[in-house]
Design a protein that fits this description.
The structure is a homodimer. The first copy, chain A, is of the alpha+beta class and about 350 residues long. Chain A contains 12 helices and 10 strands. In chain A, the strands form 3 sheets. A 5-stranded antiparallel sheet of chain A has the order 7-3-10-9-8, with helices on both faces. The longest helix of chain A has 20 residues. Chain A binds a DNA duplex (30 and 30 nucleotides) through α3.
DNA sequence: TTTAGCACTCTTCCTCCGGGAGTGCTAAAT
DNA sequence: ATTTAGCACTCCCGGAGGAAGAGTGCTAAA
């Protein structure tokens, strides 16, 4: 066992974490002793607890209350002690079903949000999703459409089913006919490329076309280049906020509830966390005090990326109070992310 | 003054409402007497208050606390006593600016949500928006795009700038070329019609085309008819939930906070309320207990429709605890809705 | 009809106190 | 050298009791 935590201490820590997760109350030495089958007396447990506290894994709300795990305590538990609870079949079924429904008749966005909502309810936490900037995704088709007298809308459908819009300003005098031609031309270029690759491609073509003079093509490329220039900052969806309201720790402590709810609004920080999970393609757990900003000090984020084939599509996860049942939540998030990856594989 | 409420009683009610809105505390006779310039003694005020309570406009949390307005009290205040506070220039400026920015470089959706977010912050309430089913909106252009091996995406851009997707299943063997032709044909039909009208038009064409045999056209129409058949249930966006967290009435009463937050999740009920505001094209105020479901018993919704030219586009408003400053909030919502209408008029 | 006066009601905020939970320490037991 | 029993101590929690304050309703006088 790492960090000078011997096996016995680790088991004590495990029981404290699990009891605290279940009850939201500080855990005393007597309780732990019982849970461990009386193999050790409360007094011994107390000694171990004192050690664990010294190492920073436990804290006491006040003298003569039990101990509660600190952020570091949860971290150690997750990294070294977690026994993954296997998912209940019913949960798996419901997730699969939601995904099947979604894949049939919804856009990629809808599919993801539907699954996310269900995940939130199953885990009794809020759920959180990001969709990656589509720069990395492969295109299925593109279309330029007249949006107003002087604006054109570029619609790009990714192979994942994700749909992306970009508004191009100041193109008053392109005719419908020309738009059609441009569409055909762009589609020829685009299919199978990523948006980023298309951007490069379009720029190259643009240079080449400068020589021969073809007004329409030049237009097409210039517009394309413009539309592809910027990529949005990405969005965060939070679903199922209400799921956390019944946690017992909020019954008296309004302040904490407010802090957690405010944390849900920290979209840009949440985005960074999920983005990291997406990049690593492994499940990521950020525990309260580990988070980069103070505002998220009371919440944990458990997230995992999902892909289409080899390319990252986004990240899905849960956000809620630090005291969450990681043994249940981590497999759940993992399964859900894999499910999305499977679903997108079928597209 | 209606309902047997004489002028004096009305003024008393007004002061009670306003004081309660400002302080979140029950209001006593002494306070009212002072506010009214000592014209009436506290004892007299007490008599009037007893009358108002009998009429159902006031309530006492317990004997010997002051009075607080009931739902009916707020209703009477809004209908008969409200002195609209004129907007602060700074607020107007910020709204205008947000709208100008949005109209320039964002889709209709984005524009509306941006304005909504700002509205929420200005009012210190949560804001809420719906976008109407686009059936009633006029089309600018449509495009069919290949979305996957056996699916096609219909993208419709409305004259408002609002973009609508419909997924059509089971069209594996339409070629890119055919799609282009179909696009051209549909666009010819569609421009300037509403989706509903297009639906009718397409069905008519479909009957006519049955006679002469043109495979592509028939395809186009069949697909069009299918895509247009259903119209989604409409969406509700809630922004700025965190704005209400600091209301003093929540400092001790967690239950009430939870109820209000849960109310924010009652999307379908909120939708109905906003839809009503959209239909009536006048500002609508729904006060707590008036609401159709118990879950919204603690919140008020203030909403107003916005249009593009003559056709309803959606509805925007605020949702928050019943105790809100209607004299400020109502003009604010009204202004915002008009602003959106103006913005969409420029499209 | 209004108002001053007054008794009454309730909440709120102290403080005090006992019970209980849990600890840390020490000394004995293994 | 560990483990454990015993014990004193600390701190939270809940209830009791009481004083202060706010506000009311009623009555009788202006």
């Amino acid at each position: 066992m790492a960090f000078g935590v011997d096996e016995r201490a680790a088991q004590v820590l495990r029981h404290i974490v699990e009891d605290y997760v279940a009850t939201a109350e500080p855990v005393g030495s007597r309780t732990v002793s019982k849970k461990m089958g009386q193999a050790l007396s409360p007094a011994t447990i107390r000694n171990i607890m004192a050690d664990l506290e010294e190492m920073g894994f436990l804290a006491q709300p006040h003298t003569s209350a039990g101990r509660i795990p600190t952020g570091a305590g949860f971290r150690f538990y997750i990294d070294h002690l977690l026994l993954r609870r296997s998912l209940v079949q019913g949960e798996v079924d419901r997730l699969n079903q939601a995904a099947q429904e979604g894949v049939g008749n919804a856009s990629a966005d809808e599919l993801v949000r539907q699954v996310s909502r269900l995940l939130a309810n199953l885990a009794c936490q809020a759920s959180v999703v990001i969709v990656s900037r589509p720069d990395e995704q492969r295109l299925r088709s593109v279309s330029l459409m007249r949006a107003s007298a002087d604006k054109i809308l570029l619609v790009a459908v990714m192979q994942s089913g994700y749909v992306q819009h970009r508004l191009i300003e100041g193109e008053p005098d392109v005719t419908a006919d020309e738009l059609e031609k441009i569409n055909a031309y762009l589609n020829g270029l685009a299919e199978g490329l990523t948006l980023a690759a298309l951007r490069v491609r379009v720029r190259a073509e643009l240079r080449r076309e400068k020589a021969r003079y073809d007004r329409v093509m030049h237009r097409a490329l210039a517009m394309g280049a413009r539309a592809l220039a910027d990529s949005g900052p990405g969005e965060v969806f939070v679903e199922g906020r209400a799921n956390i309201l019944d946690q017992p720790e909020f019954a008296e402590d309004v302040q904490r509830l407010k802090r957690v709810l405010r944390a849900f609004e920290e979209k840009s920080v949440i985005f960074r966390l999920l983005d990291r999970a997406m990049a690593s393609q492994a499940i990521q757990v950020s525990i309260g005090p580990e988070n980069p900003v103070e505002e998220l000090g009371d919440v944990s984020v458990v997230a995992s990326g999902y892909r289409q084939g080899p390319s990252a599509m986004g990240s899905i996860g849960l956000i809620g109070p630090v005291r969450m049942d990681y043994s249940r939540v981590i497999p759940l998030v993992e399964y859900t992310a894999n499910l999305l990856t499977t679903m997108f594989g079928q597209r």
